[in-house]
Design brief:
This protein is α/β, with parallel strands linked by helices. The chain folds into three domains: 2-15 and 148-238, no CATH class; 21-144, no CATH class; 241-334, Winged helix-like DNA-binding domain superfamily/Winged helix DNA-binding domain (Arc Repressor Mutant, subunit A). The protein contains 14 helices and nine strands. It has helices at 8-12, 20-32, 41-49, 56-60, 84-92, 96-106, 113-119, 123-142, 146-176, 249-255, 257-266, 273-280, 284-296, 315-323; strands at 2-5, 15-16, 180-183, 186-189, 197-200, 207-211, 228-232, 300-305, 308-313. The radius of gyration is 22 Å and the shape is globular.
Length: 352
Protein backbone atom coordinates (compact mmCIF):
# COMPACT_ATOMS: atom_id res chain seq x y z
CA UNK A 1 0.00 0.00 0.00
CA UNK A 2 1.28 3.46 -0.92
CA UNK A 3 0.27 6.26 1.43
CA UNK A 4 0.61 9.87 0.29
CA UNK A 5 -0.05 12.37 3.06
CA UNK A 6 -1.40 15.83 2.28
CA UNK A 7 -2.03 18.95 4.31
CA UNK A 8 -4.53 21.67 3.40
CA UNK A 9 -1.93 23.68 1.48
CA UNK A 10 -0.89 20.60 -0.51
CA UNK A 11 -4.47 20.10 -1.69
CA UNK A 12 -4.51 23.69 -2.91
CA UNK A 13 -1.52 22.86 -5.14
CA UNK A 14 -3.06 19.73 -6.68
CA UNK A 15 -2.86 19.94 -10.48
CA UNK A 16 -3.31 17.94 -13.67
CA UNK A 17 -0.93 17.60 -16.59
CA UNK A 18 -0.55 15.78 -19.89
CA UNK A 19 2.95 14.84 -21.02
CA UNK A 20 4.00 13.82 -24.55
CA UNK A 21 7.18 12.28 -23.11
CA UNK A 22 5.24 10.22 -20.63
CA UNK A 23 2.87 8.90 -23.29
CA UNK A 24 5.87 8.01 -25.46
CA UNK A 25 7.52 6.08 -22.62
CA UNK A 26 4.27 4.49 -21.41
CA UNK A 27 3.50 3.25 -24.93
CA UNK A 28 6.35 0.78 -24.43
CA UNK A 29 4.07 -1.16 -22.07
CA UNK A 30 1.65 -1.81 -24.92
CA UNK A 31 4.51 -2.85 -27.21
CA UNK A 32 6.12 -5.12 -24.62
CA UNK A 33 2.89 -6.97 -23.77
CA UNK A 34 0.34 -6.28 -26.53
CA UNK A 35 -2.03 -8.99 -25.29
CA UNK A 36 -2.52 -6.97 -22.09
CA UNK A 37 -3.60 -3.90 -24.07
CA UNK A 38 -6.29 -5.07 -26.51
CA UNK A 39 -7.49 -1.51 -27.16
CA UNK A 40 -4.05 -0.72 -28.63
CA UNK A 41 -3.48 -4.04 -30.38
CA UNK A 42 -3.85 -2.70 -33.91
CA UNK A 43 -1.39 0.11 -33.14
CA UNK A 44 1.19 -2.15 -31.47
CA UNK A 45 1.06 -4.64 -34.34
CA UNK A 46 1.59 -1.84 -36.84
CA UNK A 47 4.62 -0.56 -34.91
CA UNK A 48 6.21 -4.00 -34.70
CA UNK A 49 5.51 -4.74 -38.36
CA UNK A 50 6.94 -1.46 -39.61
CA UNK A 51 9.19 0.16 -36.97
CA UNK A 52 11.07 2.29 -39.49
CA UNK A 53 14.24 3.83 -38.05
CA UNK A 54 13.18 3.13 -34.46
CA UNK A 55 15.30 0.67 -32.46
CA UNK A 56 12.29 -1.03 -30.86
CA UNK A 57 14.36 -3.78 -29.12
CA UNK A 58 16.42 -1.11 -27.35
CA UNK A 59 13.31 0.73 -26.18
CA UNK A 60 11.64 -2.49 -25.02
CA UNK A 61 14.75 -3.41 -23.02
CA UNK A 62 13.86 -0.52 -20.71
CA UNK A 63 10.72 -2.31 -19.47
CA UNK A 64 11.41 -4.34 -16.33
CA UNK A 65 10.22 -7.87 -15.67
CA UNK A 66 7.40 -6.49 -13.51
CA UNK A 67 6.55 -4.06 -16.32
CA UNK A 68 8.07 -1.11 -14.46
CA UNK A 69 9.77 1.74 -16.30
CA UNK A 70 12.85 3.59 -15.02
CA UNK A 71 11.72 6.64 -13.07
CA UNK A 72 13.99 8.99 -15.02
CA UNK A 73 11.76 8.41 -18.07
CA UNK A 74 8.66 9.71 -16.30
CA UNK A 75 9.56 12.94 -14.47
CA UNK A 76 6.83 15.11 -13.04
CA UNK A 77 5.89 17.65 -15.74
CA UNK A 78 7.05 21.18 -15.03
CA UNK A 79 3.80 22.66 -16.30
CA UNK A 80 0.49 21.77 -17.89
CA UNK A 81 1.83 22.93 -21.25
CA UNK A 82 5.05 20.93 -21.57
CA UNK A 83 6.46 20.66 -25.09
CA UNK A 84 7.91 17.32 -26.18
CA UNK A 85 11.24 18.75 -27.30
CA UNK A 86 11.63 20.58 -23.99
CA UNK A 87 10.94 17.33 -22.16
CA UNK A 88 13.61 15.59 -24.24
CA UNK A 89 16.10 18.34 -23.38
CA UNK A 90 15.35 17.79 -19.71
CA UNK A 91 15.74 14.03 -20.12
CA UNK A 92 19.13 14.48 -21.82
CA UNK A 93 20.41 16.24 -18.69
CA UNK A 94 19.57 13.44 -16.24
CA UNK A 95 22.75 12.58 -14.27
CA UNK A 96 24.46 9.39 -15.44
CA UNK A 97 24.39 7.97 -11.92
CA UNK A 98 20.61 8.38 -11.80
CA UNK A 99 20.20 6.63 -15.17
CA UNK A 100 22.18 3.57 -14.01
CA UNK A 101 20.45 3.51 -10.63
CA UNK A 102 16.95 3.54 -12.14
CA UNK A 103 17.79 0.92 -14.77
CA UNK A 104 19.12 -1.44 -12.10
CA UNK A 105 16.06 -0.80 -9.93
CA UNK A 106 13.63 -2.05 -12.59
CA UNK A 107 15.94 -4.89 -13.70
CA UNK A 108 16.61 -6.23 -10.23
CA UNK A 109 17.73 -9.64 -11.51
CA UNK A 110 20.20 -8.21 -14.01
CA UNK A 111 20.16 -5.98 -17.07
CA UNK A 112 18.94 -7.53 -20.34
CA UNK A 113 21.68 -8.25 -22.87
CA UNK A 114 20.41 -5.60 -25.29
CA UNK A 115 20.60 -2.99 -22.56
CA UNK A 116 24.05 -4.10 -21.40
CA UNK A 117 25.42 -3.82 -24.92
CA UNK A 118 23.96 -0.34 -25.30
CA UNK A 119 25.55 0.74 -22.01
CA UNK A 120 28.99 -0.56 -23.04
CA UNK A 121 29.55 2.70 -24.90
CA UNK A 122 29.11 4.62 -21.64
CA UNK A 123 26.08 6.06 -19.83
CA UNK A 124 26.40 9.42 -21.60
CA UNK A 125 26.40 7.84 -25.07
CA UNK A 126 23.56 5.54 -24.03
CA UNK A 127 21.42 8.44 -22.80
CA UNK A 128 21.98 10.42 -26.00
CA UNK A 129 21.01 7.35 -28.03
CA UNK A 130 17.92 6.80 -25.88
CA UNK A 131 16.73 10.39 -26.30
CA UNK A 132 17.23 10.07 -30.06
CA UNK A 133 15.22 6.83 -30.20
CA UNK A 134 12.38 8.13 -28.04
CA UNK A 135 12.13 11.14 -30.34
CA UNK A 136 12.07 8.88 -33.41
CA UNK A 137 9.44 6.61 -31.83
CA UNK A 138 7.23 9.58 -31.00
CA UNK A 139 7.55 11.16 -34.45
CA UNK A 140 6.83 7.96 -36.35
CA UNK A 141 4.35 6.13 -34.17
CA UNK A 142 2.59 8.66 -31.91
CA UNK A 143 2.73 12.10 -33.55
CA UNK A 144 0.30 11.09 -36.35
CA UNK A 145 -2.28 10.32 -33.66
CA UNK A 146 -1.31 13.04 -31.17
CA UNK A 147 -4.27 15.40 -31.79
CA UNK A 148 -6.67 12.57 -30.91
CA UNK A 149 -4.54 11.42 -27.98
CA UNK A 150 -4.42 14.94 -26.60
CA UNK A 151 -8.18 15.38 -27.02
CA UNK A 152 -8.88 12.21 -25.04
CA UNK A 153 -6.46 13.13 -22.26
CA UNK A 154 -7.75 16.69 -21.99
CA UNK A 155 -11.34 15.42 -21.92
CA UNK A 156 -10.36 13.18 -19.01
CA UNK A 157 -8.84 16.15 -17.17
CA UNK A 158 -12.09 18.10 -17.60
CA UNK A 159 -14.09 15.15 -16.27
CA UNK A 160 -11.89 14.83 -13.17
CA UNK A 161 -12.18 18.57 -12.57
CA UNK A 162 -15.96 18.26 -12.64
CA UNK A 163 -15.76 15.41 -10.12
CA UNK A 164 -13.59 17.55 -7.83
CA UNK A 165 -16.04 20.46 -8.02
CA UNK A 166 -19.07 18.22 -7.47
CA UNK A 167 -17.78 16.00 -4.67
CA UNK A 168 -14.41 17.19 -3.41
CA UNK A 169 -11.18 15.23 -3.12
CA UNK A 170 -12.90 11.99 -2.12
CA UNK A 171 -15.04 11.95 -5.28
CA UNK A 172 -12.09 12.94 -7.47
CA UNK A 173 -9.79 10.16 -6.29
CA UNK A 174 -12.58 7.57 -6.22
CA UNK A 175 -13.20 8.29 -9.90
CA UNK A 176 -9.59 7.67 -10.91
CA UNK A 177 -9.29 3.95 -10.20
CA UNK A 178 -10.69 1.31 -7.80
CA UNK A 179 -7.20 0.95 -6.27
CA UNK A 180 -7.24 4.59 -5.12
CA UNK A 181 -9.12 6.01 -2.16
CA UNK A 182 -9.02 9.10 0.02
CA UNK A 183 -9.02 8.64 3.80
CA UNK A 184 -8.63 11.51 6.23
CA UNK A 185 -5.81 13.60 4.81
CA UNK A 186 -4.09 10.77 2.96
CA UNK A 187 -4.33 9.20 -0.46
CA UNK A 188 -4.07 5.40 -0.38
CA UNK A 189 -2.99 3.48 -3.48
CA UNK A 190 -3.25 -0.30 -3.41
CA UNK A 191 -0.14 -1.30 -5.36
CA UNK A 192 1.20 -4.64 -4.05
CA UNK A 193 4.15 -4.68 -6.47
CA UNK A 194 5.65 -1.66 -4.67
CA UNK A 195 5.11 -2.99 -1.15
CA UNK A 196 4.57 -0.60 1.75
CA UNK A 197 5.57 2.98 1.06
CA UNK A 198 4.77 6.35 2.60
CA UNK A 199 5.33 9.77 1.05
CA UNK A 200 4.57 13.28 2.23
CA UNK A 201 3.80 15.98 -0.28
CA UNK A 202 5.45 18.58 1.98
CA UNK A 203 4.60 21.61 -0.12
CA UNK A 204 5.96 20.13 -3.37
CA UNK A 205 2.54 19.81 -4.98
CA UNK A 206 0.99 16.67 -6.42
CA UNK A 207 0.40 16.06 -10.11
CA UNK A 208 -2.32 13.81 -11.52
CA UNK A 209 -1.74 12.62 -15.07
CA UNK A 210 -4.07 10.56 -17.28
CA UNK A 211 -2.44 8.19 -19.73
CA UNK A 212 -3.66 5.96 -22.55
CA UNK A 213 -1.10 3.26 -21.91
CA UNK A 214 -1.83 2.05 -18.38
CA UNK A 215 -4.03 -0.67 -16.93
CA UNK A 216 -3.78 0.61 -13.36
CA UNK A 217 -2.41 3.48 -11.32
CA UNK A 218 1.35 3.86 -11.30
CA UNK A 219 3.53 5.98 -9.12
CA UNK A 220 7.26 6.74 -9.53
CA UNK A 221 9.12 5.67 -6.40
CA UNK A 222 11.68 8.50 -6.57
CA UNK A 223 11.23 10.52 -3.38
CA UNK A 224 13.21 13.50 -4.73
CA UNK A 225 10.50 14.65 -7.13
CA UNK A 226 7.03 15.90 -6.32
CA UNK A 227 4.45 13.09 -6.26
CA UNK A 228 3.16 12.06 -9.68
CA UNK A 229 0.12 9.80 -9.93
CA UNK A 230 -0.58 8.36 -13.38
CA UNK A 231 -3.90 6.67 -14.05
CA UNK A 232 -5.82 5.16 -17.01
CA UNK A 233 -7.64 7.79 -19.04
CA UNK A 234 -11.33 7.51 -19.83
CA UNK A 235 -12.40 6.95 -23.43
CA UNK A 236 -9.07 5.65 -24.72
CA UNK A 237 -10.92 3.72 -27.42
CA UNK A 238 -11.76 7.05 -29.06
CA UNK A 239 -8.13 7.46 -30.13
CA UNK A 240 -8.39 4.59 -32.60
CA UNK A 241 -12.11 5.05 -33.24
CA UNK A 242 -13.67 5.83 -36.57
CA UNK A 243 -13.58 9.44 -37.73
CA UNK A 244 -16.69 11.60 -37.53
CA UNK A 245 -19.43 9.77 -39.45
CA UNK A 246 -20.71 11.43 -42.58
CA UNK A 247 -24.23 12.80 -42.09
CA UNK A 248 -26.99 11.68 -44.39
CA UNK A 249 -27.45 13.44 -47.72
CA UNK A 250 -30.84 14.72 -46.57
CA UNK A 251 -29.41 16.28 -43.39
CA UNK A 252 -26.63 17.82 -45.45
CA UNK A 253 -29.20 19.39 -47.76
CA UNK A 254 -31.20 20.69 -44.81
CA UNK A 255 -28.36 22.25 -42.81
CA UNK A 256 -25.52 22.38 -45.30
CA UNK A 257 -22.88 19.64 -45.21
CA UNK A 258 -20.37 21.49 -42.95
CA UNK A 259 -23.00 22.18 -40.29
CA UNK A 260 -24.42 18.66 -40.58
CA UNK A 261 -20.92 17.20 -39.97
CA UNK A 262 -20.46 19.51 -37.02
CA UNK A 263 -23.74 18.40 -35.46
CA UNK A 264 -22.78 14.74 -36.02
CA UNK A 265 -19.42 15.33 -34.32
CA UNK A 266 -21.10 16.86 -31.27
CA UNK A 267 -23.38 13.83 -30.98
CA UNK A 268 -20.29 11.85 -29.90
CA UNK A 269 -19.70 14.09 -26.88
CA UNK A 270 -19.22 17.72 -25.82
CA UNK A 271 -16.30 19.43 -27.53
CA UNK A 272 -14.62 22.81 -27.77
CA UNK A 273 -14.12 24.84 -30.93
CA UNK A 274 -10.46 23.79 -31.01
CA UNK A 275 -11.29 20.08 -30.69
CA UNK A 276 -13.93 20.31 -33.41
CA UNK A 277 -11.47 22.11 -35.65
CA UNK A 278 -8.94 19.28 -35.28
CA UNK A 279 -11.48 16.52 -35.79
CA UNK A 280 -13.14 18.06 -38.83
CA UNK A 281 -10.01 19.46 -40.44
CA UNK A 282 -11.32 23.02 -40.73
CA UNK A 283 -10.28 26.33 -39.19
CA UNK A 284 -11.52 27.35 -35.72
CA UNK A 285 -13.08 30.43 -37.34
CA UNK A 286 -15.18 28.29 -39.66
CA UNK A 287 -16.27 26.11 -36.74
CA UNK A 288 -17.30 29.20 -34.76
CA UNK A 289 -19.39 30.52 -37.65
CA UNK A 290 -21.23 27.22 -38.11
CA UNK A 291 -21.77 26.86 -34.35
CA UNK A 292 -23.33 30.33 -34.26
CA UNK A 293 -25.87 29.27 -36.90
CA UNK A 294 -26.65 25.99 -35.10
CA UNK A 295 -27.06 27.82 -31.79
CA UNK A 296 -29.42 30.40 -33.26
CA UNK A 297 -31.52 27.54 -34.68
CA UNK A 298 -31.77 25.92 -31.25
CA UNK A 299 -29.81 22.82 -32.28
CA UNK A 300 -26.77 23.16 -29.99
CA UNK A 301 -25.72 24.99 -26.84
CA UNK A 302 -22.40 26.04 -25.37
CA UNK A 303 -21.45 25.86 -21.69
CA UNK A 304 -18.27 27.17 -20.13
CA UNK A 305 -15.91 24.61 -18.57
CA UNK A 306 -12.82 26.29 -17.15
CA UNK A 307 -11.18 28.24 -19.97
CA UNK A 308 -13.10 26.41 -22.67
CA UNK A 309 -16.67 26.53 -23.94
CA UNK A 310 -17.98 23.03 -24.64
CA UNK A 311 -20.76 22.57 -27.19
CA UNK A 312 -23.37 19.82 -27.20
CA UNK A 313 -26.57 19.08 -29.14
CA UNK A 314 -29.89 20.18 -27.73
CA UNK A 315 -32.98 17.96 -27.96
CA UNK A 316 -33.95 19.30 -31.39
CA UNK A 317 -30.44 18.62 -32.69
CA UNK A 318 -30.51 15.06 -31.37
CA UNK A 319 -33.91 14.44 -32.94
CA UNK A 320 -32.64 15.69 -36.29
CA UNK A 321 -29.68 13.32 -36.14
CA UNK A 322 -31.91 10.38 -35.21
CA UNK A 323 -34.36 11.16 -38.00
CA UNK A 324 -31.59 11.43 -40.59
CA UNK A 325 -29.19 8.74 -39.38
CA UNK A 326 -26.70 7.82 -42.12
CA UNK A 327 -25.83 4.18 -42.88
CA UNK A 328 -22.74 2.89 -41.07
CA UNK A 329 -19.49 3.60 -42.88
CA UNK A 330 -17.26 0.75 -43.98
CA UNK A 331 -13.66 -0.09 -44.68
CA UNK A 332 -11.86 3.17 -44.04
CA UNK A 333 -13.41 3.78 -40.62
CA UNK A 334 -10.39 2.68 -38.63
CA UNK A 335 -7.84 4.73 -40.53
CA UNK A 336 -6.31 7.52 -38.40
CA UNK A 337 -6.46 11.05 -39.70
CA UNK A 338 -3.31 11.93 -41.68
CA UNK A 339 -0.87 14.62 -40.58
CA UNK A 340 1.77 16.45 -42.49
CA UNK A 341 5.21 14.89 -42.57
CA UNK A 342 8.33 16.32 -41.03
CA UNK A 343 9.54 17.19 -37.57
CA UNK A 344 7.59 19.74 -35.66
CA UNK A 345 7.24 20.75 -32.07
CA UNK A 346 4.52 18.87 -30.24
CA UNK A 347 2.81 21.33 -27.90
CA UNK A 348 1.58 20.31 -24.51
CA UNK A 349 -2.11 20.55 -23.74
CA UNK A 350 -4.27 23.56 -23.22
CA UNK A 351 -6.12 22.49 -20.12
CA UNK A 352 -9.48 23.90 -19.30
Amino acid sequence: MITIRFDAEDMADLRFAVSPLHETAASLWALAAPERFPAHLRWSRAVRANPGPVDVPLLLSLVGRRRHLPDFLTPTPLSNRDVFEDELDRLARVPERRVLQDLRAVHDTGLPERLRRALDAGPDVFLARLVEQLAAHHRRHLAPHWPRIRDVLEADVRHRGERLVAGGARALFASIHPAVRWEGAALLIDKPSLGEMERRVCGRGCCLMPTLFARSVHFPVDDDQSPLICYPARGLGAVWAAPVPEPSVELGRLLGRPRARLLAALAEGPASTTELSRRLGVTPGAVSQHLAVLRSAGLVEGRRSGRSVLYRPLRLGRLLLQAHAAPAASGEADRPAPVSAGRRRTPGPTLG
